[in-house]
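User: We ran a pulldown and think these components assemble together. Before we commit to crystallization trials, I'd like a predicted model of the whole complex to look at. Sequences follow.
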Amino acid sequence: MTINQKQTVRSDALALFGVTGDLAYKMIIPALYALVKRGALTIPVVGVALEKWDLAQLHARVKDSLQQHSGRIDDKKSFHKLLSLLRYVSGDYANPETFTAIKKALGGARRPTHYLAIPPFLFEKVIQGLGAAGLAKDARVVVEKPFGRDLASARELNRVAHSVFPEGAIFRIDHYLGKEAIMNILYFRFANSFLEPIWNRNYISSVQITLAEDFGVKTRGAFYETVGCLRDVIQNHLFQIVALLALEPPTRQDPDAIQTEKVKIFRAIRPLASADLVRGQYTGYQNEPGVAKNSDVETFCALRLFIDSWRWEGVPWYLRSGKKLARSVNEVMVELKPPPQKLFDDSPSVSGQTNYLRFQLAPHSSIGLAARVKQKGKKFIGDQKELFVLEEEPGEQSPYERLLGDAISGDHTLFTREDASEAAWTIVDPVLSKHPRPFLYRRGSWGPKEANALIAKDGGWYNPAVGSIKGG
Ligand code: BG6
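Assistant: Here's a predicted model for the assembly, 472 residues in total across the polymer chains.
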């Protein structure tokens, strides 16, 4: 069996908790429409939320969501098909009658998928409500991030989830794992043989991962106040990228074998100490709606990781993410060591321009491999050139479309297992509450200057450009 051929049973209904919320509006409804368009969604979809809406109001919301977030409604037949699949249940999650109404709306469904697109503080309540109403039997539950807010709460959430669902029925979603460019990291590493001999501490000097966003918290200030950058994108999205870049070849081609290798990486990463971390906050963050006037929450985080393994001993991994930075870009830069002999005047050990492998993950996907080539003329001096081995292809599925489709068909490959989630929390746990106040940084910059000290001995931060050119 390959990782693409997991044998599973499809769900026969979808209950979408939080259907009136922001995530459903921006991501999930467009994903449902895309699934209907390719014939991959034919089951009833029961939207659940507190709002006292009727079906007509839900239909209007769906139409609006598609107009705003799918570009336009380009397939009327699929749009009407999606509307025909929808039902709506209004209710408070603390009230058992809500679950009775959901059961009724699910009709004869025997294997529903319950998607919890709701604020994290409601996860446990809804999971328990599903269990008490008999809605968990042969069902699946998809849990949005953040899965817990530290190691202890993640463990508790896992305990509650396991008291109702077996691990095989729990789908912890991290939408980064559904991105084409991120799935390609795993493929690129193990579908090629040229990389493996150099993919270790002997040839790699450091790895940098930047997830920069040029926008702020927008309307999500109140949510962001409960997370901050480290919990919002580093403990999950960036750590998943680290794991895919660092893991050993899985022994088998199945999802569990890959998860097992990821867990080994998370367990080999040294838990963070304050000296490994620089927190920042953009100027004016405290005036954003929903944000406390004296907020200590970081909108920027830079950190240095070490993976204590045979392959990675001594290689620093630098991770950085922030809001209101210079541009929106997500890129991995793997720096190679210079050749041992300084044969030419412009040898990398002199010029500082070593070979590298660069994965741009967003806004474009590309892989660039930098090598030096000689300039014409008598002198042995050259330039750094990039070989492009991949550029994005049009028509990619959105992560939510892919992951929702996978959950409905029971494919766990792109979801996070219990032990992986807990091991990732273990790394950040020591610095979640004990840390100095964040440094202020200018909007439109690359974060606080204090973050430079963290990486000074490895040549400084590399600021990615957008598209097929290297940043600086
Ligand atoms: C989300 C975070 O999980 O990921 C957001 O909550 C962040 O704060 C987003 O902006 C980034 O995801 P993407 O796919 O837009 O890069």
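Residues 213, 232-233, 362 surround 6-O-phosphono-beta-D-glucopyranose (CB under 6 Å). That may be worth checking against your pulldown data before setting up trials.

User: Thanks, that helps.
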